[in-house]
Amino acid sequence: xxxxxxxxxxxxxxxxxxxxxxxxxxxxxxxxxxxxxxxxxxxxxxxxxxxxxxxxxxxxxxxxxxxxxxxxxxxxxxxxxxxxxxxxxxxxxxxxxxxxxxxxxxxxxxxxxxxxxxxxxxxxxxxxxxxxxxxxxxxxxxxxxxxxxxxxxxxxxxxxxxxxxxxxxxxxxxxxxxxxxxxx
Length: 184
Fold this sequence. Notes:
By secondary structure, the protein is mainly alpha-helical. The chain has helices at 17-22, 41-51, 62-79, 85-91, 95-117, 129-143, 152-161, 165-170, and strands at residues 30-33, 36-39.
């Protein structure tokens, strides 16, 4: 799967008419794969999990798999949508306090969950879908000046994950359409 042309989360390429033809919601991601177009991060990740060999993103153990899905849903459904580009644009001058409030609220809920489930990564010692969801959300938190250090488990997990090559190259700040002021 070639991701070299994929827009960054909330990226500006998602505002084009060409992209709208792929995803009428004009949100990222939208991925053309195996003759179909998929949108929504968790649907894309789970499709790849189910159709591609390689490291598993969902644990074999049903309890751990449920924990991965729960953490992923907390991030993808409970925290992240409130920082989507179209929401933030509607907030105008209030966008930073708005984002800070909802990221902090979400991280306050996520931190105790991760204290219970984390090993080296979000759930135990294997990278999972939850880790894939966590890193871009921490990037959003930092972008909106949320003090991530007040969430020691989230901070530790993120610091561990961003040292892994796959997370480095796929980091939101490294995507082709990331504005220059948000690049690292």
